[in-house]
Design goal:
Elements lengths: L1 H31 L1 H7 L17 H10 L6 E7 L6 E5 L11 E4 L6 E3 L4 H13 L9 H23 L8 H5 L7 H27 L5 H12 L3 H9 L13 H11 L5 E5 L7 E6 L9 E6 L6 E5 L6 H7 L1 H5 L5 H13 L1 H18 L19 E6 L4 H13 L2 E5 L5 H5 L3 E7 L11 H5 L12 E8 L8 H12 L3 E2 L4 E4 L3 H13 L15 E10 L9 E8 L12 E5 L4 H11 L14 H6 L22 E4 L9 E6 L10 H9 L5 E7 L13 E6 L3 H14 L4 E7 L9 H10 L2 E8 L9 H7 L1 H9 L3 E6 L4 H13 L1 H9 L3 E5 L1
Parallel strand pairs: 9-10, 9-11, 11-12, 12-13, 12-14, 21-22, 21-24, 22-23, 24-25
Antiparallel strand pairs: 1-2, 1-5, 2-3, 3-4, 5-6, 6-7, 7-8, 15-16, 15-20, 16-19, 17-18, 17-20
Length: about 850
């Protein structure tokens, strides 16, 4: 509940104070280098034109400057040590005016007033925007209250943001600092918002806490007292009691200036001389040589009548509290840390609009996500009463129900029920069940499933006969991502249920996860030619090589297929990721279709100039020769997924593909296209998507790799990635039919044994006399050694067929390691599977 409250306040303040903070951030960045910018664009004003004339003494410069303003009194003079810099002068305000008087640069060689630097008016406006949004009333108006509230909001944003994104592994610096720019849409907005927020959080806290110094007097007095043990009010009262009723004329600086130069030896960058009214001492505020910021000064107070030094206040003698309170502006803009501090504050101030924009985009995405999807209903195919599979859903806004109905429609003869209607009788009627489960808020069940979660899920179900899978819907903005989906998975498993494949997590409208679920449905009997629920965008790749790996095998031919991007730009991927290809029909089948219909394949069929023959190559052609569906009404071919068997450093994508034969003798859609129909050099539509559930766990752990057949593809990717990183000592279990024909890539695996990438290689050949074992039998036989590897920190990765191998290996691992340990490894990401 606390997290939810913080989140609600966080986004509410974001859409109210966020725009103000964006303005304050940009204007603050512009003010960071105000003096340098004005100096650069003001030659002849800030910097002097070359000349040999000596500098006048301060008294003469003051007298000549005052004469140019009809005798107006000079309040202060800043003397620059560098000969090429103009001095600065400030007059008293005109009679009846409040605040500070006119400022001007002055030429110390002749006392001529040079005026203000170019851009000073612009920066006055920027300062007004930064401090009080340039609203009427200035520092005493409503603008100051708005910016003060926004500064307080920024403190809340920084602290609540840390709380809301606190990772489960808080000591893992990658979770805090690594930005994955391969994400897109809402996931990218969140990554930019959270990760970059982590980079700049300390700078924002510094800006906000120091910015309040000028917003509230009580805050300033409190900070002063906390850091120095005193407030400025006492000083003000003492000063007010010492008001001088003497003459207005400024004192002569001759003796005071002489005493100052003798004391300091003119070792300063600049000195600001404050001229008192009457007979008070003169203050010389001297900027030290090589000072990091403008408040790094010594103050020397000298009696102008006799040149006697009254008081010396050294910067080096100040306490830390005094340094901070006398240099608050320099702390605020980072200058107290020198040029690097100013640069950091400049960059972080410029990023402020990023959080306003990404926060707004996330808010809009959340609003879109909450809209019910009532209009996207799908009719259930088949007779529910005769269904041999159950699809259950728990939905808050309708999204899970829509996906459940799409799932049922893809499988046919499937009953669809809300989770709250699932009981022992319902489970007893089916051997297979799919659960589409939404998580609401902070890991909570949807409202309608709360009672079910509290009461019905208190005890495990009688599910020892059940094979199940879970599609979990959630939102990564919450720490307990897909928590209720995990609870349902654990509940079913505790009742003896067996997973058909690992739970698939969906973050919002994650198209990759939707397609992964759809691909698993195809393995369960859904139509393999069903169109994608979430269409992908593909790049153009060229088929450059394919090599038959098992000539003479009793099984289907298996090929190593290699592709390169046509544009030469390689996407970044990691071992375990998936290649999606958009297949094409057998050219002969397209020709037969055109011949039967008496159609010309060169006919243009759309506004882009696509020829009919090209259009048919990418469309689902009817199996019935008498089906007269119009070409324009044919649906596009669905994609096919393959584990990537190479790494980006290889410079190519390699796939292990076994030819699949349909019941009518035709080759499978994807395997037929890549292993036979597409000629070498042909263009292939391909995209790579992250498969986070099968990437290697963090750290340089040893891996226990288990697979069969073309499942070697995903395992080979991990071995190559380990070899590239200089990590070895892994263990590979591999199963196939015959040693004589099906020892895929045996030369490469032997080299990995020789160079240490592999420490062990165990192979099983199910059809060989003298072996006759499957890969799960190898796991059973090595249970003791396998337990030792796991206790030593090894992770387990399984890749291969959903039917047969995956459940058998899972059972063998549970026998060897224990159900509880394997479940714990799965939760920690140390037991990962890519099965199909």
């Amino acid at each position: 509940m606390t997290r939810r409250i913080f989140f609600q306040i966080h986004w509410f303040l974001g859409i109210t104070a966020g725009l103000v903070l964006a303005v304050m951030g940009v204007t603050g960045a512009m003010l960071s280098f105000e003096d340098e910018i004005m100096a650069a664009i003001s030659p002849g004003i800030v910097t002097l034109t070359p000349g040999n004339a000596p500098h006048l003494d301060p008294d003469t410069v003051i007298a000549r400057a005052s004469a140019q303003r009809a005798g107006l009194r000079v309040a202060s003079l800043t003397v620059e040590e560098a000969p090429d810099k103009a001095w600065r002068i400030q007059f008293d305000p005109l009679k009846g005016e409040k605040g500070r008087g006119e400022r001007s640069f002055v030429d110390p060689r002749d006392g001529r007033l040079l005026g203000n630097a170019n851009g000073s008016g612009f920066f006055r406006t920027i300062t007004s925007l930064h401090r009080w949004l340039a609203l009427p009333g200035g520092g005493n108006g409503i603008g100051r209250q708005i910016t003060a509230f926004s500064a307080i909001s920024l403190i809340f944003f920084a602290l609540s943001g840390l709380y809301l994104r606190w990772p489960k592994r808080a000591l893992d610096w990658r979770a805090w600092l690594v930005l994955d720019l391969r994400k897109s849409g809402r996931n990218l907005y969140r990554a930019l918002h959270a990760v970059i927020g982590g980079w700049v959080v300390l700078f924002y806290l510094l800006s906000a806490t120091t910015g309040l110094w000028w917003s509230y007097d009580w805050y300033r007095q409190g900070v002063l007292y906390a850091l120095t043990g005193k407030t400025s009010r006492g000083e003000q009262q003492r000063d007010e009691g010492k008001k001088d009723a003497g003459p207005v004329a400024s004192p002569s600086l001759k003796q005071a200036w002489s005493a100052f130069t003798q004391l300091t030896g003119s070792q300063f960058e600049s000195v600001t001389i404050t001229l008192p009214k009457g007979k008070k001492p003169v203050d010389f505020r001297m900027l030290l040589p090589d000072a990091r910021h403008e408040r790094m000064t010594d103050t020397i107070r000298i009696d102008p009548a006799n040149g006697r030094v009254v008081k010396v206040e050294r910067y080096a003698d100040r306490t830390v509290g005094e340094v901070i309170t006398t240099s608050m502006l320099e702390v605020h803009r980072g200058a107290i840390f020198g040029l690097p501090g100013r640069l950091f504050l400049f960059v972080t101030s410029l990023t402020m609009p990023l959080f306003t924009i990404t926060g707004l985009l996330l808010y809009l995405a959340r609003r879109r996500k909450k809209r019910p999807a009532d209009e996207e209903t799908v009719e259930i195919v088949g007779t529910p009463e005769a269904a041999d599979m159950l699809v259950a859903f728990a939905s808050q806004t309708g999204g899970a129900e829509r996906l459940a109905r799409q799932t049922a429609a893809a499988l046919g003869a499937t009953r669809v029920l809300p989770l709250t209607s699932v009981d022992a009788a319902q489970l007893a009627q089916v051997d297979r069940a799919l659960f589409v489960i939404s998580t609401y808020g902070e890991g909570e069940p949807p409202d309608r499933a709360r009672r079910f979660a509290r009461q019905d899920m208190a005890q495990p179900p009688a599910a020892s006969h059940l094979h199940y899978a879970v599609l979990a819907l959630g939102d990564r903005e919450y720490a307990d991502f897909c928590a209720f989906g995990h609870q349902v998975d654990h509940w079913l498993h505790a009742g003896g249920g067996q997973r058909m494949f690992d739970m698939i997590e969906v973050d919002g409208e994650d198209a990759d996860a939707h397609r992964q679920w759809q691909q698993q449905l195809a393995a369960l009997g859904a139509r393999p030619d069903a169109p994608d629920w979430a269409p992908a965008s593909y790049g153009k790749w060229r088929l450059i090589d394919r090599r038959l790996l098992n000539p003479g095998s009793a099984g289907g031919p298996a090929y190593l297929v290699s592709l390169e991007p046509c544009d030469g730009l390689f996407p970044d991927w990691e071992a375990g990721d998936i290649a999606e290809i958009l297949p094409r029909n057998d050219p002969q089948r397209v020709a037969d279709f055109l011949l039967r219909r008496d159609l010309d394949g060169a006919t243009i069929v759309d506004a882009e100039g696509t020829m009919l023959q090209t259009h048919l190559a990418g469309a689902i052609l009817p199996d019935d020769i008498n089906d007269m569906t119009l070409p324009a009404d044919l649906r596009p071919l669905p994609h096919r997924e393959y584990s990537v068997a190479s790494i980006a450093a290889d410079g190519r994508i390699e796939l292990l593909i076994r030819q699949v034969r349909r019941d009518d003798g035709r080759l499978g859609l994807g395997s037929g296209w890549l292993t036979r129909h597409a000629p070498l050099g042909a263009e292939v539509d391909l995209r790579v998507h992250a498969n986070l559930g099968f990437r290697a766990p963090p750290g340089d752990r040893r891996l226990i790799l288990i697979g069969n057949g073309t499942g070697l593809a995903g395992l080979r990717g991990h071995l190559r990635q380990s070899a590239a990183r200089g990590v070895g000592g892994h263990w590979l279990f591999l199963g196939e039919r015959n040693a004589a024909h099906d020892a895929f890539l045996s030369d490469e695996l032997e080299r990995m044994l020789a160079d240490g990438t592999l420490e062990r290689l165990d192979r099983a050949y199910s059809r060989d006399v003298g072996c006759g074992r499957y890969v799960q039998h190898l796991v059973e036989a090595q249970a003791t050694t396998l337990r030792a590897w796991v206790e030593d920190g090894a992770a387990i990765l399984v890749c291969g067929s959903l039917e047969g191998m995956a459940p058998a290996v899972d059972a063998a691992l549970r026998t060897a390691l224990g159900d509880e340990r394997l479940e714990a490894m799965a939760e920690a990401g140390l037991y990962r599977r890519d099965i199909y």
